[in-house]
Specification:
The protein contains four helices and five strands; from the N terminus they run ααβαββαββ. The protein has 163 residues and is an alpha+beta fold.
């Protein structure tokens, strides 16, 4: 672990300590590490240096908008390789909130999110990306459940945050 010293004027230090207390950090170092990770993540994404990501797309839409729910579902099905899961909640008689969990190439995830948010009737869309590295590609060798299946186990990828 590397150490460095920073100087803050008293007003900035006081405001930072209030942030630390409100968010429940144990100390200033933990808070600074989180802030640095967030800034490095933003910098990496702005420079298109994060080839893979996991993400959450959230949006609100009016379910009375003609065929909007069907269009949104269709877009998700068309991108089943990116869509991990979705969650739907009713806010009132007209509005629904959805969260879609995504993973894949960052550029494809961004295009998917932009297409979803551009649908007429979608409001308050927000994409939260986390850059990840593909750390392992492998299969687990447990026995298959289905009689006559060719291969046992499951093939999957391990993803870990970049920083």
């Amino acid at each position: 672990m590397e150490r460095f010293t920073i100087s803050l004027d008293s007003e900035l230090a006081k405001a930072f300590d209030a942030l630390i207390a409100e968010r429940g950090y144990g100390n200033r170092s933990e808070a600074v590490r989180d802030i640095i990770r967030g800034q490095l993540e933003a910098w990496q994404q702005a420079r298109d240096e994060s080839p893979h990501c996991v993400a959450n797309l959230s949006y609100v839409y009016n379910h009375h908008e003609r065929e909007l729910a069907e269009r949104l579902t269709s877009i998700q099905h068309d991108h089943h390789d990116l869509t991990v899961a979705s969650m739907h909640a009713h806010l009132d008689h007209e509005n629904c909130f959805e969260g879609v969990f995504l993973r894949g190439p960052t550029s494809a995830v961004r295009r998917f999110a932009e297409a979803m948010m551009a649908e007429r009737g979608v409001r308050h869309g927000k994409l939260n990306l986390v850059a990840v590295e593909v750390s392992q590609h492998h299969a687990h060798g447990y026995k298959p459940r289905a009689p006559g299946a060719k291969h046992g186990g499951s093939h999957h990828v391990h993803l870990k945050p970049s920083r």
